[in-house]
Amino acid sequence: xxxxxxxxISFVCLTGFxxxxxxxxSHAIAVADKLDELLQLRKYTTHYKQTExxxxxxxxxxxxxxxxxxLCYHSDLPNMGIYLKFSGQGLKEYMKMRDERxxxxxxxxxxxxxxxxxxxxxGEARVSKVDFAxxxxxxGLNVDHIHKELQQSSIQSVVFDxxxxxxxxxxxxxxxxxxxxxNEVQTIYVGSxxxxxxxxxxxxxxxxxxxxxxxGIFYLQAKESSDWVRFxxxxxxxxxxxxxxxxxxxxxxxxxxGLIFRRVTxxxxxxxxxxxxxxxxxxxxAYANNDFDLLQANPTRKNDLVTTYYYLLKNSGLESxxxxxxxxxxxxxxxxxxxxxxxxxxxxxxxxxxTLSFLSKNREKLLHEPKPWKQxx
Length: 377
Fold this sequence. Notes:
The structure is a single chain. The protein is about 40% helix and about 25% strand. It is of the alpha+beta class. The chain is globular. The protein starts with a strand and ends with a helix.
């Protein structure tokens, strides 16, 4: 199975603000509020807060769902604009929550809604960073084998030749680096990952291993797959700006999927020493030039029973708390703790609308699956 997707996306708007410096923060707050209204960020996230932490140079940030989504501005620097960032997980969970509550939004509509900010405040609005992902699931690919093949191959990019007035292929001389575990390459980087100003970066990695180790939002899908290799191209600056405009020209998922394949193959095509394109490249080019709906159309939220169970064990601090109890009090303390939790649950807990919606949609399906603590064995 081959799928295309948008992983992360970030936006910037530079409004037509022309007031005095002391008025800018009030203006920035008004813009941020309007963006929240246009995209309904607070409504379709679990929690949000003003954070003291700065991000990417911005000193005022609203954090949605533990930095999965960030809405930022700098109180003293109007030229930095208002910044909105969706992480990969944040984007999927936001879209899934909207879908569950009967207000779905597509990637195309997401970009359209952000761009509407110009109608209220003037100025410019653009995509500042976007990650396009192409997944090969159960296609027999292996990242270590890809790296070995790369050592005998070249990467080509599409460039415009002014002399011939045509698009031609030219060797991409980007630096190639890797991350290996037990001498087996699990991630390949084409381009500099240290240089944050770098406008292009390709990451080829084992998505199955990543999701299994993190218990990520695609954990169950990864567990069921035999192999899963992701080609993830990160576009910044002028490339991202242009891609934002390209997305606005798409009218459906088929066109957006084709755009993802075209932009990735514009910058990264793989060729053997003989000059023949890799099968991977041939497949991507075929999808770039035909009308296939390969877009990941069913976003996943990290609120299923398995990932919640794993979060409680590994990330919530529960086991650390239990360890402290065990080493301070007498032996029955763990049983006493869980008795207190059960009593609180029985007497005081009130399920949220989101929890009730989750049960309504998923209870029957989950009844036929192993219990969470058995799936993670």
